[in-house]
Design a protein that fits this description.
- The protein is an all-beta fold.
- It has a single domain, classed as Porin.
- Helices cover about 0% and strands about 70% of the residues.
- Strands 1-2-3-4-5-6-7-8 form an eight-stranded antiparallel beta barrel.
- A hairpin with a 4-residue loop joins β7 and β8.
- The N and C termini lie close together (about 10 Å).
Length: about 150
């Protein structure tokens, strides 16, 4: 069961996802994505998170020749019970999309996620993040590690 930390807790995450990119005049394109984040819990229910990721339609080129890269600054609102945490993300994102696909480059970001804790430090994580008004969406499965334990 998670135990409260006295100071703000820093956490980081890494995950893999199936991302969807809206391409004007050409529908949606599915992209394999590597996603990560780093954040801090300011209190037991409020945190600040920086999220980032890269995606491509070819698994071998996700990092070397990605079709989309993103960075987002997010406010994280969460509720914890037992060994589970549900959270909501709200903020702003910057998209760096291949110019042949989409001209959108920034917009609002929002998401929802859940952590299932095995210890006070480690959780299996799943979340959905919607960037730039739905131009890019990712559904991430990975892990989060809380330095010093979750609050």
């Amino acid at each position: 069961m998670p135990v409260a930390a006295k100071d703000s807790s820093i956490y980081y995450s890494l995950g893999f996802s199936d991302g969807g990119l809206q391409v004007p005049g050409n529908g949606s394109r599915s992209l394999g994505t590597i996603a990560g984040s780093v954040g801090t819990q300011l209190s037991s229910r409020i945190g600040i998170e920086l999220a980032f990721g890269a995606g491509s339609d070819q698994p071998s080129s996700i990092l070397s020749e990605s079709l989309v890269q993103y960075q987002a600054g997010l406010l994280r609102l969460s509720h914890m019970w037992s060994n589970k945490e549900v959270y909501f993300l709200l903020g702003h994102a910057r998209l760096d999309v291949d110019s042949r696909l989409n001209p959108v480059n920034a917009g609002n970001a929002f998401g929802v996620g859940i952590n299932l804790f095995g210890t006070k430090n480690v959780a299996i994580n799943a979340h959905v993040l919607n960037l730039a008004g739905g131009e890019f969406t990712s559904a991430v499965i990975g892990f989060q590690y809380f330095v010093g334990g979750v609050r």
